Amino acid sequence: xxxxxxxxxxDNEFPLSLxxxxxxxGLQVGDGNVEVSGVxxxxxxxxxxxxxxxxxxxxxxxxxxxxxxKGVKRIAxxxxxxxxLHKAIKCDIAIYAAHTNADKIxxxxxxxxxxxxxxxxxxxxxAENEQVYKVVVYVPVADKQKVSDAVYANGGGTIGAYDCCxxxxxxxxxxxxxxxxxxxxxNIGEIHEEKESRVEYVVSRRNLSKVLSAIxxxxxxxxxxxxxxxxxxxxxxxxxxxxxxxxTPVAPIEFLRRxxxxxxxxxxxxxxxxxxxxxRRVALCGGSGSDMVGxxxxxxxDILVTGDVKYHQFFDSYDGPIIADIGHYESEQYxxxxxxxxxxxxxxxxxxxxxxxKSNPINYL
Length: 365
Ligand SMILES: [Zn+2]
What we know:
- This protein is of the alpha/beta class.
- It has three domains: 3-99 and 334-354, NIF3 (NGG1p interacting factor 3)-like (Udp-n-acetylmuramoylalanyl-d-glutamate--2,6- Diaminopimelate Ligase, Chain: A, domain 1, 3-Layer(aba) Sandwich); 104-126 and 239-332, NIF3 (NGG1p interacting factor 3)-like (Udp-n-acetylmuramoylalanyl-d-glutamate--2,6- Diaminopimelate Ligase, Chain: A, domain 1), CATH 3.40.1390; 128-237, Alpha-Beta Plaits (2-Layer Sandwich), CATH 3.30.70.
- Helices cover 28% and strands 31% of the residues.
- The protein is built from twelve helices and 13 strands.
- The chain has helices at 3-13, 47-55, 80-90, 100-104, 109-116, 144-153, 208-218, 252-262, 293-298, 311-314, 328-332, 335-344, and strands at 26-29, 38-42, 60-63, 94-97, 120-140, 167-176, 191-204, 225-250, 269-270, 279-288, 303-307, 322-325, 351-354.
- The strands form two sheets. It has an eight-stranded mixed β-sheet. It has a five-stranded mixed β-sheet with strand order 1-4-3-2-13, sandwiched between helices.
- Zinc ion is lined by residues 65, 287, 328, 332.
């Protein structure tokens, strides 16, 4: 697989359209024509990460935080960004960032936090809805799976955290191929009846054209019969932060201890826990989620677990949930597992390794 092919795959898994306006996701540096020798997964790229990539035979770094946010005017080694870029170009290493788009996809950074804390009924804290379409395809029964695979590979058939969703019913299709046609089955000038499946998929607006092209390519017929129906309902296509429930409520201090252990925190900051006897509902936001207190309150959460909370923002807890600041890096450390799972789905032929370099610039005394 070439770098450009991997970039295309990742752009599909982590849609760039989901990123925040200040963000700079996607390929930061790299030559699309180079064969991928291995992928190194990291939260941040520091200079040591590039040495690690070379040592491990990886020429592609998939990281969470972009290296470049603002315009770079020169690559002359004056700061760590210029040095890393210079080394990446010299060593022919591609760097790709999946940041706020990885935060916002269903199953993204905060979902991973929820999984680690065994939350149930997990939904986005700030949901982004998208127009959906019903795509109906009539396909010979034997080719149903091929068409479905093409739909799923392009983001169709996804409802919330479920994918590969479809409904089908078998019946008979008829058609008569006229002069100039090249029918897959049947003869010119004769009405043919074929056992077909009518398969339905939900497809979001963002994926519609990709899915329709993929169906066209996978379908055996010269003129596939496809209905595209605009639905009145929308689906939750993405969102920032999550909220979910604990199956068994626990005392606040017990929950905080669980959080501290789960996220391997050397310390965590938290507000008054005497305001409730038990934690039942939990809001989470990986990275900097201090502005999510209002949403966490409206979601009925007893506690908001996030990072980067400033002193004055802790006061918001008087009118909202308990706030626990576990550290930015700590809250996002398991994002590498999301990257690994996304790459594993793609039947990759190269090695994927986790960076073991400590990239968190913060130490605790
Ligand atoms: Zn972050």
